[in-house]
Design goal:
Blueprint: H1 15-18, H2 22-36, H3 41-48, H4 52-64, E1 68-75, E2 81-86, H5 88-100, E3 109-110, H6 111-120, H7 130-136, H8 144-156, E4 160-163, H9 170-181, E5 184-188, E6 190-193, E7 196-199, E8 230-234, E9 237-240, E10 252-254, E11 259-261, H10 264-267, E12 272-275, H11 285-298, E13 300-304, E14 310-314, E15 318-323, H12 327-330, H13 333-338, E16 341-344, H14 350-363, H15 370-380, H16 391-407, H17 415-425
Parallel strand pairs: 3-6, 4-15, 4-16, 7-11, 9-12, 12-15
Antiparallel strand pairs: 1-2, 5-8, 6-7, 10-11, 13-14
Length: 434
């Protein structure tokens, strides 16, 4: 089953259709001209991410208020365009507006308009079938039973808790889920609420689609007809680990520019938010999950401005919690009830372990040796109760490669090399004299 293509946001056909107050749009125009020394409507159009007719309408508005004036110069290099400049009153207004907020450039998208776009490109509209998921996990050896559970979880776009012993690919599975999504969405450069600007697009989090350009000032533009206040991106993935704190889920206020930056979960809207190594954070897992209770249940999040005013934003994110702890050790029943899917990721059985070992050996150009594998399975693994883990083939083969390189011999697999590699995989339980 294929995923329906996302409907793009329509270009505003008039200044009123932009959805912002005339004063805010005018001030962003003046600040942009002041900060970037721009004087042509065509260049302003690209910078403000508005069409040329709408930009001209905005310029005419400012001219009518005596804040802009025509320079009287036609630019031959720009198709005979008339230039514009700030009047003294316009410069004064630009400075006053900059004192209130340093934001200039692309016009923000009003929050209410953005909510409608989020609905059009919801993560819950995604349809992932078994083939898509299997192809995305092609680099992993996974039991069919695990895919049986993962498929419906991804397709539902709801929260997932993956738990189990370390080293069995929970992080790799999370990345495979991301790869299975495959399509693109539209991410606003910034959104506006109550006159405040919140930047959303983040080149660290958001990956541009192949035909997209990062720079709104770029001279070459694509022919796509959609609201250029948005950037077309792959569905985003935010990955956090032990560094995650509750404060990272709040708006970030920049007191110098007097603008806000969207928190991580808002940047991940329409995509995936992975909380890796849950239980390793400074704050208890229960505290972190309590912060997610309302978003997970109601598909909306509550944020607060510096003034204390609270408002709701969409929470349209597939949240994946990954932990090495048993869920009952770190959550109460109420928290577990709100996590939609709980999937245990166990170590492989012996058959799958050998498949993984062979695949890794082939990839790393390490010739297989039957006597060595028998030694590994009969002599080494019984010492740890045959607890196989997905990370072990990579670890053991990398160790043997390192030994071969040190000894100056071709890559090879022998019982002796396995013994030396095995000694580095575990730490002997012993008392250390202090």
């Amino acid at each position: 089953m294929s995923t329906p293509s996302v409907l793009p946001p329509e270009q505003p056909a008039s200044l009123a259709a932009v959805g912002l107050s005339p004063v805010m749009m005018r001030d962003i125009l003046l600040k942009t001209m002041f900060r970037q020394n721009l004087d042509l409507v065509s260049v302003l159009s690209r910078t403000l991410c508005l069409t040329i007719p709408v930009t001209q309408e905005l310029v005419d508005l400012a001219r009518g208020q005596k804040l802009l004036e025509a320079t009287g110069t036609l630019h031959a290099s720009s198709g005979g365009e008339m230039g514009y400049q700030l009047t003294d009153a316009g410069k004064a207004r630009a400075l006053d507006a900059l004192a209130q907020s340093e934001y200039f450039g692309a016009m923000p998208v009003p929050l209410e308009m953005y909510k409608k776009q989020v609905e059009r490109q919801s993560i819950r509209n995604i349809h992932v079938d078994r083939k898509q998921l299997t192809d995305a996990m092609g680099h992993l050896i996974l039991p069919d039973s695990l895919l049986d559970h993962l498929g419906p979880a991804v397709g539902a776009g709801r929260s997932i808790l993956m738990y189990g012993p370390p080293g069995n690919g929970k992080s790799s599975i999370s990345n495979g889920i991301r790869d299975a999504l495959g399509d693109t969405i539209f991410v606003p450069r910034a959104i506006e609420y109550s006159g405040q600007v919140i930047t959303v697009y983040d080149p660290i989090v958001h990956t541009l689609a192949a035909d997209e350009e990062d720079d709104p000032n770029a001279l070459r533009r694509t022919g796509a007809k959609y609201d250029r206040r948005y950037v077309r991106c792959e569905r985003p993935t935010v990955v956090t680990g032990g560094e995650l704190t509750v404060s990272m889920l709040d708006l970030v206020y920049n007191s110098t520019s007097r603008t806000y930056q969207a928190p991580l979960q808002l940047k991940s809207t329409g995509g995936i938010f992975i909380v890796d190594d849950l239980g390793r954070q400074a704050e208890p897992p229960q505290t972190l999950v309590n912060r997610w209770i309302v978003p997970l249940e109601e598909s909306k999040d509550i944020l607060a401005l510096q003034s204390g005013e609270k408002f709701t934003v969409p929470f349209d994110t597939l949240v994946i919690f990954s932990t090495n702890f048993h869920p009952n050790e770190i959550f109460d029943g109420a928290a577990l009830r709100r996590i939609f899917f709980k999937i245990k990721v166990d170590g492989p059985n012996q058959e799958d372990f050998l498949k993984i070992f062979a695949m890794v050996a082939r990839k790393k150009k390490m010739p297989l040796n039957e006597a060595t594998l028998v030694h590994l399975l009969k002599k080494k693994y019984p010492t740890i109760n045959n607890n196989f883990a997905n990370y072990q083939p990579v670890f053991l083969i990398d160790q043997m490669r390192a030994i071969c390189e040190f000894e100056g011999i071709p890559y090879q697999m022998t019982p002796d090399l396995i013994d030396r590699a095995w000694a580095n995989m575990f730490v002997k339980d012993e008392k250390i004299a202090k």
